[in-house]
Amino acid sequence: MAANSRYSFPSNPAANPKAVVTGGKGSSHYRFTVLTDRLIRYEWSEDGGFEDRVSTFALFRHFAAPHYRVVDLEDSLEIITEHFHLSYDKKKFSSAGLSVKVHKDVWQYDGNSYGDLGGTARTLDGAWGRVDLEPGVLSRKAYAVLDDSKSMLFDSHGWIATRPPGRIDGYLFAYNGDHKAAIKDFYRLSGTQPILPRWTLGNWWSRYHEYTASEYLELMDHFKREGIPLNVGVVDMDWHKSGWTGYSWNRDLFPDPEGFMKDLHNRGLKVTLNDHPADGIRAYEDQYEAVAKALNHDTSRNEPIQFDCTDRKFLDAYFDVLKLTLEKQGVDFWWIDWQQGDRTKIPGVDPLWVLNHYHYLTSRRSLKTLQRPLTFSRYAGAGSHRYPIGFSGDTQITWAGLEFQPEFTATASNIGYGWWSHDIGGHWGGVRSNQLTVRWVQLGCFSPIMRLHSTKNLWNSKEPWNFEKDAFKTIKEFLILRHRLIPFLYTMNIRAAYESEPLIQPMYWNHTDAEAYTVPTQYYFGPDLIVAPITSPDSTTTLMGGVRAWLPRGRFVDLFHPHLVYDGGRYMHLHRDLSQMPVLAREGTILPLEGTARLANGSPRPTEITILLVVGKDAQFELVEEPEPEHEEALGDDGDTVQPPLRSFVRTPITWKQREGILIIGPEWNGTGRWRQWNVKLVGHTGSDVQARVPPGFRATREHGCTTVALGHVHRWNPDGGFEIALGRDLQLDVVDVNARVFDVLHRCEMVYDLKDPVWDAVARSADAVPTRVERLQGLKNVDASLKNAVMEIWAADGRAKGSAKGHEVWVDVNKGGAAVEQIEEALKDYVIV
């Protein structure tokens, strides 16, 4: 890749002249750009100059001009669209002089960004639990505001630039609760989320530890022996000689770096190295002389070459001498671990922005290895979604940290940031806990990126087999599940890039109900799955963890506990033992999984697919896979990376017709006609005699609340354009067997035997009316509140069940986390070393 292509990227920053309203005189000049009838840019300057260069946030300001009306008088200006009414006194912007009415809300200029639903934060470094979030572009009010006045710019040659002081530049989003429309226009203005390579969606191994090459390779082989697949091997900073910054391999640990990385590649792994670049290049570095020569740096006194990302010559030497040498040895991409603030020699230029932007663009030279451009670094502000993948920093190992992480991940979508990678299991501090680690891994499985990590500590590591037997089993199962989810995840990756739909979305993105705003740790994972992670310790009575959830209208089944079916439109308290977490699928859900029994590192395209099908409603899903080589269109003529047209991807539509009971798979578009084995798993349906009809036959089995139909090998490119499977007309989810499920819960409870009887009698033996029995259950003394809620969950889940308590449910307030845990964590704060 030529050096100048590092400074080239798609943009169209100048606005449509038909959308611009401008004027002013003396020392007050204004410009408004009506981007859409719900999105307006506002600018003010003293000198009459306005900004048409690319900012770190805004790359594409040229929209088709919407319909709007202007009322321009001597001392006032009004701009009116269907959705907002702007009023302005033609003076320097002030709260009294500039306001916008949106629906019933009025915004008055104050120079700040505003989005009370939150966005994300630069880092979770050192976080015990919750941290303050920067605003996103979504709000409970009818408007949100993004102030862009201080962001860094890029000139017409792709190099960094700064703004003249004193100018005001901002954007008002007037979407009145239409959150998805706001995000779509955010992406239109700032650029879409890029496509991630398929392999990024699997498991990453990372640990801050002084590995030797042989130790690291043996660890990778241990994962293979355990049947746990990996896709990325992360090597933290001890790969280099000393200190935080380094670019020379520690030959005592890695005597043959090229051989080491080749061995990782041969094991199906990509390799990333940690880089803290702030200390520059010192005289003992292997490449000191080469970089010095490129920069005409005097080496006679062995003075270090200072890091200076505002110097284009330094940046070119940093990439094209220093890092390219290491990439030729086998480094696939870089983990940029910048922790040194947001200032450089040029005021207004954030080094993190510079590093993220140019690392991402430079990674285009490695497309044969990476498939797509990629970097791995912290969030630098609005627009950072263009440089995946995000590294969220060094969280402490606490229940409070776990509880905040699903909310933190979901609200990041409010600023378009869809690909966070967290230190799964927590990074440092805290206490060793099998429970906490398992619950964090479960969250990681249903997170954008699944990366195990821990700090440099003899006792703190995340190798699954180092935990207790049951914990190890569950961690292993979820790491395997993560790789099985990749067919779904890659499809969601394409959906995010082409349809402006991040993988993870807060509940209020899809529901206008007030309740959707009250469950911050609950989120959508794709269009049909609702995840409610358990983020507190298990009850010592029920041996289950619990979480308060809100279910929208409809009917749902739990993928991990398909014996439980829920009627929605209400709050529920969900309880699961350590082997499970609540992941609810609505009726009419299709979820494709890798079906291969033994998964390979690197996640090659699967030869076997298992379709999880939730019956009860019609369903559609289009499985999307990477373009075949003959359809790949990755690079433009000028070297710019562009997203290939959607038509170039391999696509397989999957359709379920509920009334007829027909599942249609195919036809596959752009494929090669390879043979593929298909299986269908009816989640939560076992009641009817499934009569699948498909050549060359099938095998049906029932277990654990599901019916699985194995179809054998079916050619994916049949002359008739796919194939149909008749599974049975109008299949429905099983009705919850309340007594059987309550018995299971009571049987496992560790409590006084005699106290189980009155609980059982209230649910299963009494002939009284349900409300009376519910009242009796709630009135039982010496019965743990968590048990009452666990019983109530089953009793009220399914309104179709005989004697269901739906509509009569009562929930007991359980002290989340438990006093003992809170006391331990509070005491630990006194011993934390920051």
TrEMBL record:
Gene Ontology BP annotations: carbohydrate metabolic process; N-glycan processing
Show the CDD domains listed in the entry.
GH31_u1
Report whether 4Fe-4S shows up as a keyword of the record.
no
Q: Which GO terms describe its molecular function?
A: alpha-1,4-glucosidase activity
Instruction: Name the domain of life this protein comes from.
Output: Eukaryota
Instruction: Report the PANTHER family cross-referenced here.
Output: ALPHA-GLUCOSIDASE (PTHR22762), ALPHA-XYLOSIDASE (PTHR22762:SF89)
Q: Give the family, as the similarity comment puts it.
A: Belongs to the glycosyl hydrolase 31 family.
Query: What is this protein identified as?
Result: alpha-glucosidase
